[in-house]
Amino acid sequence: MIEFHGSHLKPLREGFVPIVWSESVPRCGSIRVRAHTCECIMPSYELCSAAGLVHIRRTVRSAEGTCVSESPWLRTAAAHRLWESLLDGHAR
Ligand SMILES: [Zn+2]
């Protein structure tokens, strides 16, 4: 994994799975970011783990401010599959 420059998402594919994004609410103290996409393209995404679960955080930074939303919290394997689908354009 290259730390300085995250991955770029592949273009969205036909028949992609919509991810249910909800407003990000702080639920627990320590969130570890396991992977992230490049911030040169908005929104940027981060794979986060906290409290034994993993979720994806979506961040849009604009002149109006920063908007953060998050995917459902999933078990590690399911969250990693979702992350791969996101990067490959199969989910967004
Ligand atoms: Zn980039």
Describe the structure.
The chain is an alpha+beta fold. It has a domain of 58 residues. The chain is 14% helix and 33% strand. The longest helix has 13 residues. 16% of the residues are buried. The structure holds zinc ion.
Specify the number of helices: 1
Largest sheet: 5 strands, antiparallel
Share of residues in strands: 25-35%
> Helix- and strand-based class?
alpha+beta
Give the overall pLDDT as a whole number: 91
Widest sheet: strand ordering: 1-5-4-3-2
End-to-end C-alpha gap: 21 Å
Total beta-strand segments: 5
Order of helices and strands: EEEEEH
Radius of gyration: 13 Å
Q: Per the principal axes of the C-alpha atoms, what is the gross shape?
A: globular
Poorly predicted ranges? none
Bound molecules: zinc ion
Helix content: 10-25%
What is this structure, in a nutshell?
This protein is of the alpha+beta class and 92 residues long. It is 14% helix and 33% strand. The chain has 1 helix and 5 strands, in the order E-E-E-E-E-H.
List the keywords.
5-stranded antiparallel beta sheet, single chain, 14% helix, 92 residues
List the helices and strands and how they pair.
Elements (H helix, E strand, L loop, with lengths): L21 E2 L8 E5 L7 E7 L2 E10 L2 E6 L5 H13 L4
Antiparallel strand pairs: 1-5, 2-3, 3-4, 4-5
Zinc ion (ZN) binds next to loops.
